[in-house]
Amino acid sequence: MSKVYRFDTYRYVDALQKEIIYFLAVAELLNVSKAAETLGIQQSGLSRAIQRLEQDLGQKLFQRKNMGLALTPQGDRFYKAVKDTKQRWEENFNLLLNDSESPSGLVKMGLHASFGQLYLPKIIKNLCLNFPQIETEVNMLRSFETTRKILENEIDFGIVISEIKSPEIIQKNIGIDFLAAYQHDLKKNPTHFLINPDTQASQQILKKYSSLRKVYIKDYELLAKTTLFSDFTVGLLPHSVALNYENLKPVSGTLVKAQISLICHKEKLKSRAMKKIFDAILLACRSNDKF
User: Fold this and answer.
1) Domain 18-99, what fold?
2) Distance CA 248, CA 214 (A)
3) What is the tens place of the pLDDT at every residue in 260-284?
């Protein structure tokens, strides 16, 4: 698990030693077990780090309350001091990033698996060729989760299938997909409707199959395979997934168009290095063949 208290998404750039980082986590969560989980370390190791810090300072930083931990007056003053130091360092570090021409460090992306298979191979290929010094982390997320994490600066770039209303988000259209119902044997009358609960389905489709029993499957590939090997099911699938299964046939009806977009926070593009990465991802996405 990645640390919360690090600057941007770089792994080794931190002006504060680990005891201070651990203290900040506990001070903000006021729960040792939750802080340890957030930091990705053992609770015992976190407790020992706080004890070392208190011994070094000669001050108790936390006190136990009925509902958990609380900062002592000394702990509160220490928290404000190191928090201010951290914020000042982050501001100066971000200025350094904005002046940088060469992308480096860890780049985080979020996208849904349904169209990840369509775009991700070319994205990774393009990033590896143009920026071999960066590391890339890909998170399989629903579109609303990707948008939320970008707004909260937890990931850098995302590919989503919904229109974003926030003025803080830069959104570039990269393609379209279609939602449709698919069946293996059109001569059979389906009894069950397979649907991913994360799918933003139209009311028109949902109404058409409202009389069928629902089977909820969160993985589109598993949903497609289940539809393929069951004659009495109809599955709601993105066309980008269904086209990999030639024996699945679209049920007659209107296809629902879905716009696919590349998004990032507008503040990210103030960095010339991040702008280069964004442009490389955009170029890779737009090079895909349209449906």
Assistant:
1) Arc Repressor Mutant, subunit A (1.10.10)
2) 19
3) 899 999 988 888 888 999 999 999 9
Domain boundaries of the chain, sorted by first residue: 18-99, 102-291
Which CATH number applies to 102-291?
3.40.190.290
pTM of the model: 0.57
